[in-house]
Known about the structure:
Layout: H1 2-5, H2 24-30, H3 35-46, E1 49-51, E2 54-56
Antiparallel strand pairs: 1-2
Amino acid sequence: MAIRVKPKYVLDADIAKCFDRIDQEALLRKLNTFPTIRRQARAWLKAGVMDGKQLFPTSEGTPQGGVISFQG
């Protein structure tokens, strides 16, 4: 019933490259956790991404398809 009465909005957003340039050091500083976990997160950020047999290193951002990337 409310669908017929209230205005509707649709948000269409392409976030495929949203996290490509996130500052990894700033992200790690905001990660309020134990040093051991922070070191593991840093390793995940630096690990890069494999596409087929090719490795794409990451110096910035959170690699899409990587261990800590958002899979929504």
